[in-house]
Inverse folding.
């Protein structure tokens, strides 16, 4: 039977004031909604500090240790010769085009794919001087080519490696629904839009389910006999890409790089063999585990690669037994994944998650990246 799921099945109305614009006062002070998948029962926990009560000794907690890079850059077009003269008005003022650059993926040292605004003015050959500290004013980017998605391949000059300059030149790439005065990140975003276990640089968006953990909470879990394991998936721009096709099967899922170590793979297989549960922290961790299992007859093995796994109902999961996540945007691939996990192998999870979200809205939970948490057991 063909899949009848449509993008509109994952729509819902959210009051704008419930979109969290800032993190909770402390990481573990966020609220936690717990959905028991087998019964549909929803439980409300006043604090994320209640999370350890739902995981048992012998279970495994899988974290995504990708680190968010300050991937948003700003700059202005470099004008030359006649073009510069033509841009002078009667007063002699020069008005070079201003650009916003969002780095997407490194190709090699000083060459990155990026999204640029305004894109129409970023033609091949355009040179841009990046804004930043005075000593860094000569760092430039040149548009080398444009791909079918409208992304630009940029070559950076004036630095040995643009990656080493991002902390000074770049801004935290906050999602578009988080608003900051002056279109820049606030000082607290540098710390709070990053998990405490972030290690491997490469993401342009945070794996937000991990934002609720503190070092103390992780120590508590480890002390109770829970395995704390790590995978890496570099979160790309596709996290926020809208699903443009009504038929889900027509949606081209974004590709993301992942890695799973021998230690993590071995520990997960030991956990499963001993009937322990696997808790995925975030949809990113889940996609790593299920991508690897899909390619290895249900087994978790070490390796690195790229995944385009698009999870939506109905979907059967091989590895993950519980999912910790945040509340996601309407019509997003993340909401589709959560709905699939709510009722594996059927489409019943759509209505189950819809009811849970409706209750979260009634209870005034905070939504999206800086919002509250949801645990599906």
């Amino acid at each position: 039977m063909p899949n009848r799921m449509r993008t509109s099945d994952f729509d819902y109305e959210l009051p704008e004031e419930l979109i969290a614009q800032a993190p909770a006062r402390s990481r573990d002070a966020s609220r936690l909604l717990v959905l028991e998948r087998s019964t549909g029962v929803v439980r409300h926990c006043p604090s994320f500090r209640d999370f350890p009560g739902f995981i048992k000794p012998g279970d495994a907690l899988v974290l995504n240790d990708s680190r968010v890079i300050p991937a948003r850059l700003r700059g202005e077009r470099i004008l030359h010769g006649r073009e510069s003269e033509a841009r002078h008005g009667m007063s002699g003022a020069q008005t070079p085009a201003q650009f916003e650059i969002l780095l997407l993926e490194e190709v090699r040292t000083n060459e990155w794919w990026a999204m640029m605004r305004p894109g129409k003015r970023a033609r091949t050959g355009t040179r841009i001087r990046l804004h930043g500290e005075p000593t860094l004013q000569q760092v430039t980017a040149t548009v080398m080519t444009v791909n079918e998605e409208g992304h630009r391949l940029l070559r950076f000059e004036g630095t040995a490696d643009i990656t080493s300059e991002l902390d000074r030149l770049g801004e935290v790439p906050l999602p578009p629904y988080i608003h900051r005065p002056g279109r820049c990140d606030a000082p607290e975003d540098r710390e709070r839009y990053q998990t405490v276990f972030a290690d491997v640089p490469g993401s342009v968006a945070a794996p937000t389910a991990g934002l609720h953990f503190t070092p103390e909470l992780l120590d508590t879990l480890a002390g109770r006999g829970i395995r704390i394991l790590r995978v890496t998936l570099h979160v790309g721009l596709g996290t926020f890409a809208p699903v443009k096709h009504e038929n889900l099967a027509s949606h081209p899922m974004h590709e993301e790089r992942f890695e799973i170590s021998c230690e993590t793979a071995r520990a997960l297989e030991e956990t499963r063999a001993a009937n322990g549960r696997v808790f995925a922290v975030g949809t990113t961790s889940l996609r790593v585990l299920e991508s690897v299992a899909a390619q290895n007859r249900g087994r978790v093995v070490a390796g690195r690669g790229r995944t385009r796994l698009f999870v939506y109902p109905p979907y059967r999961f091989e590895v993950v037994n519980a999912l910790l996540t945040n509340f996601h945007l309407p019509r997003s691939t993340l909401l589709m994944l959560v709905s699939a996990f709510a009722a594996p192998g059927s489409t019943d999870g759509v209505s189950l998650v819809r009811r849970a979200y409706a209750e979260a809205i009634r209870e005034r939970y905070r939504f999206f990246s800086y919002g509250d948490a949801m645990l599906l057991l």
Observations:
- The chain has two domains: 7-68+188-376, 72-170.
- Residues 82-91 have pLDDT under 50 and may be disordered.
- The helical segments are 81-86, 166-169, 189-192, 215-223, 262-273, 282-295, 333-342, 349-362.
- The first strand starts at residue 32 and ends at 35.
